[in-house]
Protein: Expansin-like EG45 domain-containing protein
Organism: Hyaloscypha bicolor E
Amino acid sequence: MPDLEEPLILSKPTSSTGSGVSTGPSSTSNSPSTRTTPYRTSTTFLTGKAISTHTQLPYTTLECGNADCGSGTIFPDITTVNSSMPWHYSRSTHFGETPAGACGFGLYGMCTTANVSGIDLGADCALFCTMYPDMCADPANATLRGNFAAPNGDYYTQFWPMLPSLSVGEEQDNYLSCGECFELVRTYDNGSLYAPNEAGYAPPIILEIVDSCPCEANPKWCCGPSVDQCQEVDAFTYGCPLPSGSIHLDLSDVAMARAQAGVLVEGVIPTQYKRVPCPKAGNVYVWLRGGAGPYWIQITAVNAAGLGSIVGFEIRPDGQSEWLALIQEDDYPAGHPQERYGAWTLPPNAPYINLPLGIRLTSATGEQIVNERVITSWTAPASAIQGYWYIDMGTQFTLL
């Protein structure tokens, strides 16, 4: 499949060629808060000889009986994104609205203050947007909030040679695509674009990855080009099989409705998409789960700008001089890495965690942000939504 080039030339569906599009489509803040930007630091990235010998072990215990249920090694590590990334032809389905996505983002990503026809996000989202307005605010000239997506599972969980293994010798990937952003637009069946004055036109939307579409659970759409089923998309020029290098994106109902000019009608649509920098308003937040304390923590970072994904989550308890690297949850079924939960937790034999707690986050660019006293209590304030306490890091990654 050739990359789609800009500038855009819009046309009616007269051929099977397509083209891209680049235009529009109570929290706490604790001091001190600092930012550091050491790129590809030794604490996070491998270099030289280490990276050349750092290869993933094959998956040998797959329960799903299909190699596509395993590793994401077919996708290269990406440490920079700009507005000129290549476009890809694809198709999208939708899967409803849920705060239970695999990334462990909770209400974040699901909620928006915008009114989308026929979709009720409920009282928790209304309260979330009142308490955290930045995390419900769209960037200028685009829609983002409420537009979440789940890629096929071998994209959701990947192996990057430049990152340390989650566990030495284990059959595990070491990178999750949680937080990455994509621009998506609906096309005609042949892949060409609607003109702005045509019936059915909808401006491009920005998506954020918050979930996985694992091959085992959804073999119809999410096992990749080699295992595609075509019954519902045989009229799509690029719908089945997926073009090489393309992924399937399963959308929230909000995103699917917006991609169809505001009303959810079709269950599967032809699309073009490309990776874009994440245009996030406000700061990074951390979602601290209830029950956290000196011996157990489950936590997620959300609303990261730039590349969007987090590759390192470290804490420094009061009285400790060194940063302690958290590990990603590993409680997925044996041989099903695509079902990994995106939260971070304490490693084995972690020390007693005293408060206040500092947090250092590393993005996929290698940039780090730090707040030395971000968590000062294990108890959520009375104003917090039950089960959804998000704490302001007081800082943000660089907007790319």
Residues 328 and 344 are 4 Å apart (CA to CA).
